[in-house]
């Protein structure tokens, strides 16, 4: 790891994160070290530093960073958004990722932005245990987004089958957030004509795409009237509820899979976030912020490298390397061959101190 890269990145981020000189250097060491080592394991990151400093000293410095630094929960959002670009017509995707560390469960609820070149976490919550998120947790996460960006910045919000509920859908509709969320076949829907059936019963004789309007049944009738669109895929139904035109909702939902690819970037295909031994929710939230910054850095590096060009596809039509992998490989190469150029993608950030950043 080049000290020139750490110094350059420290100078660039000093006006964006409210940390002292030593702490901001440690943050930059973590960002660069995680990219260079392709793991969040602090022992491996410490080895990346090199030089005359003992690895044990660097390792203890990284540990103290997670032990003592406390920043606002959304401190990394302006950094990530600055690397991704202006918040206009964003596709947002909500999903969970979880794994076990011994007997402890790590469970993140993540709101990510998906564009043609980027798939990056924006906001997240560390959930207790390994179960699904509550409606209150989802609403709180979206409200955090709306505290920074207007609802008009959202082109569509996508989510899978576990993110349903009449109260949740009503909140999105009342907030003027376009959404397309997949449903299970056993859910009951009351159509506008007063007929109440499960989705499976309504669709079992349908062979092609079907659309209708109705309300997700919750024992009351004050929910919004929404569009339902169903399409048969490989022997099962893809059923989407939305406040968009039905066929447009089905088309938009195809992009939901990008968050699964993003989790792969953060895990085995990229930064190996599952290598962490951290279990404290506060430290896990800080770790995800650093990983999100690294993912956005890789995406911006790929965008700057390729410009208006597209990554080279293979004969079957899929990309030989993703935007993330192109950017990650490019940064790792520059860290060893031209350390000064490795921080060029960060120059798109406007110098501005973040009001939401706070250290205790």
Layout of helices and strands:
Blueprint: H1 3-13, H2 21-37, H3 42-48, H4 55-68, H5 77-84, E1 90-101, E2 104-114, E3 119-126, H6 135-146, E4 154-159, H7 166-174, E5 179-182, E6 188-191, E7 196-198, H8 199-203, E8 210-216, E9 226-233, E10 236-242, H9 246-253, H10 258-266, H11 281-306, H12 323-337, H13 339-342
Parallel strand pairs: 1-4, 4-5
Antiparallel strand pairs: 1-2, 2-3, 5-10, 6-7, 6-8, 8-9, 9-10
Helix pairs in contact: 1-2, 2-3, 2-11, 3-4, 5-11, 6-7, 11-12
Task: Give an account of the 3D structure.
About 40% of the residues lie in helices and about 20% in strands. The chain is of the alpha+beta class and about 350 residues long. The chain has a domain of about 130 residues. A ten-stranded mixed beta sheet has the order 3-2-1-4-5-10-9-8-6-7, sandwiched between helices. α2 crosses α3 and α5 runs parallel beside α11. It starts with a helix and ends in an 18-residue tail after the last helix. The C terminus is likely disordered.
